[in-house]
Model the fold of this input.
Amino acid sequence: MQINRSIYRSNLFRLSEGESQGRYYASKVRPDRRNDCYKAKLTISEVLPSDSRTYRLVARNDRGAMNFAIKVEVLDPIAMTTVVGVSAALLLLLVILVFALGYAYKGRKGCFKKKVRKQDFICTYDHQGLRSTFCKKAFQISF
Done:
């Protein structure tokens, strides 16, 4: 049986097929490929979280009416300021981590350098207690 009339309803509006009201448009009901099946479409442009509600389609023909309900829940997307803020914080954390690792590597590398102080010379003395001209460095490696 052919659908004679269809009406979309919510607590804010009532639209017959082919009508529009504000951001809402009710398309005409069209037959589907399957036998005794029809396609109906309610289009909401620029969807807002306030559009979350139950919408109903009432389809009528000579034999009576059928009600179809669909609950629409519009989820708020993540705000762009939140995305930018989190991205900037992660980038800053990465930069700090790179500098900290670089500093630690440089400091670790520096620990193994040989440090020589003036007093770290071993000199030989002759039997009269006079200092010889031969002195060699005594290296002290500190960790």
User: Anything to note?
Assistant: The two ends are 93 Å apart (CA to CA). The mean pLDDT is 77. Helices lie at 80-111.
